[in-house]
TrEMBL record:
InterPro entries: LysR_HTH_N, LysR_subst-bd, WH-like_DNA-bd_sf, WH_DNA-bd_sf. Residues 12-69 form the HTH lysR-type domain. Keywords: DNA-binding, Transcription, Transcription regulation. Belongs to the LysR transcriptional regulatory family. It comes from the Bacteria. It comes from Aureimonas glaciei. GO terms for molecular function: DNA-binding transcription factor activity; transcription cis-regulatory region binding. Pfam families: HTH_1, LysR_substrate. This is LysR family transcriptional regulator. The keyword Nucleotidyltransferase does not apply.
């Protein structure tokens, strides 16, 4: 039977609809609670109250999780329509209506370059918006976003995932970087580095793939690659002259200026790394849009990203 929630909204709360939609979407009360930043018992109580209002069982056990009943599946599109309508209304209320917490993941190199400026502007534009930040490699952040434990992420070359929106921000210039003590030629080729200490992010990361593919372009393999899960520590190790690595050129500006490292001119060059904002398409909320807009404003003032090609 068709549902007409509009006639029940004096009894059904937005919080109950959010609990229902996210539990139905993710298939887990615990995960929905993490997504909405409330306790698991709170979600359970909201679902029970909602079922009492509509007079129907909306969920059933399925393996280790739960799924909507046939009535629940029929209820779901109308519940989403109501929530989407509320979000559209809130967008017209102006920046002062953007409030609450937002869980944001940032690829570390990107964060080092522009996160402090982004937070400063965000505090000015949206004083009631409180970011909860996760900074790591894209390899570590993207699974958290895909599991709905983050609202938004800024990632290097992320994967396309069904149900998620990707917004291109530009391409991050990356380079081989080395301390002067290595006394490398003006133009560096893979054979020049095969016997030298190399450091990268862990296996599976974009950074590690950049390193491997650069050497593979000449059919050679470096003698050893040490790995480090932190881009900041990787840069510190390169700056100390212990190893040579690839990381965002913008991160090295100060060190290049004072002669502590060199941006290596290489053949082949290291490909620029595209940066995207990624979020669940059903969570196109004012908070998500506000954060993305703020990042865009910061990037427009920096000589950092090039156009994605």
């Amino acid at each position: 039977m068709p549902f007409t929630l509009v006639f029940l909204m004096n009894k059904i709360t937005i919080a109950q609809l959010q609990a229902f939609v996210w539990t139905a979407t993710i298939g887990s009360v615990d995960a929905a609670a993490r997504r909405l930043n409330v306790s698991q018992p709170t979600i359970s109580l909201r679902l029970k109250a909602l079922e009492a209002e509509v007079g129907l069982a909306l969920f059933e056990r399925f393996g280790r999780g739960i799924r909507p009943t046939p009535d629940g599946y029929e209820f779901l599109p109308e519940a989403r329509r109501i929530l989407e309508g509320m979000e559209r209304l809130s967008r017209h209320a102006g920046p002062q209506r953007v409030r609450g917490s937002i869980k944001v993941g940032c690829a570390e190199g990107f964060a080092i370059v522009c996160l402090s400026q982004t937070l400063e502007l965000l505090h000015e534009l949206y004083p009631e918006l409180n970011p909860e930040l996760m900074v790591a490699t894209t390899l570590a952040i993207e699974p958290e976003l895909n599991a709905h434990r983050l609202d938004l992420a800024f990632l290097v070359n992320p994967t396309e995932s069904e149900g998620f929106t990707l917004i291109p921000l530009g391409a991050q210039k990356t380079s081989w970087i080395a301390a002067p003590r290595f006394n490398l030629p003006a133009e560096v080729r893979p054979h020049d580095l095969t016997g030298l200490p190399i450091i990268s992010n862990p296996v599976g990361s974009i950074n590690h793939r950049q390193v491997r593919e650069w050497f593979a372009s000449a059919g050679v393999v470096p003698l050893r690659i040490d790995t480090c899960n932190s881009v900041a520590m990787l840069a510190h190790i390169v700056r100390a002259g212990v190893a040579i690595g690839i990381y965002p050129s913008k991160m090295a500006e100060e060190d290049v200026g004072n002669g502590r490292v060199r941006l290596l001119k290489t053949s082949p060059p290291v490909a620029d790394a595209p940066i995207y904002a990624k979020f669940d398409s059903r969570n196109d909320s004012p908070s998500v849009r506000a954060f993305i807009t703020t990042v865009r404003r910061v990037l427009s003032q920096m000589d950092y990203l090039t156009e994605v090609t």
